[in-house]
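Data availability (excerpt). All sequences and predicted token strings are deposited with the supplementary files. A representative entry, MADS-box domain-containing protein, is shown inline so that the format can be inspected without opening the archive.
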Amino acid sequence: MSSRPSPRTGPSPPPLPSVLPSPALPGLPRKRGTERDRERSGRRCVAARTEEARSVMVRRGRVELRRIEDRTSRQVRFSKRRSGLFKKAFELALLCDAEVALLVFSPAGKLYEYSSSLSIEGTYDRYQQFAGAVRNTYQGGASTSNDEDPSNLQSRLREITAWSVHNNADNADASNLEKLEKLLTDAKRALAKQNSNRSATGENSNGPTGEGGNA
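Structure token line:
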């Protein structure tokens, strides 16, 4: 008969812990080598992005700006750029509390306008008052130039209106024509007011001089 070995009767081994200790305790500092590697990699990424941005700027700087020959491409580009222009104007008015007014005529002669105030006419009237005040301040008895002549300004406005009507002959838009006519009327009123102010200023300046001569 084969005899089986008797089991050992010594003490049993200690039980394994249920949770193994983590290799890195939260209280211990991290390795400096890892932080340095991260800083170096971050600097390399920033340098690479800066170099890429410079190359893009150089490539964009070499692009020649000129008129787009294809009509369809020109209309598409105008629509995109117009939207971007109006968006920038809105951001400028909102962020900086500025009064902005834009008048844009499309290649087909269609009028697009934007105003941060209640109406673009109000901004135009404000511009006329400011321009008149500046001219009166720096006039100093000198004759006005051709660009400041009211008749010249009226003729230019008439030319713009005639050009817009001619280009809108195929696609006539009554609302756009009414807006142009209103702008022309407002311009005439502003010019008439400016002329009256100039005549009043001339009378006031000539009055004391005449009295002094009679005395």
